[in-house]
Amino acid sequence: MQRGNLFRHAGTPSDGERFDLLLAQRNLLIERIVSSPRIAATTYVQEQDEWVVLLQGEAVLDVTGELVPLAAGDYLFLPAGTPHTVCRVSDGALWLAVHLHPEGHRPATANQSVTG
Asked: In angstroms, what CA-CA distances link 80 with 9, 11, 66, 77?
């Protein structure tokens, strides 16, 4: 059994985003993301499907040229190959991201594991 708390140790990084690995199981990866408002707008085009929910804060994403505002509780499904960029985010925004990699692919692990 693995147990933790999404809000514990969720301090905001001084800039950018912090990715905390919660679970890596076969082709599934679940991570917590904590955002600073000082982010570099980076466009992601991932090989895996991603379902993401904003647990606290606000954000604006550019998804294939469409601006998508998100508030706490909003979620979004991004199929593999969908270009997306975080344009703006509030201080301490907290995300939960679920990545489903193609069958037979072993996902790379995130930066840090959350244990409490």
From this structure: 30, 30, 17, 10
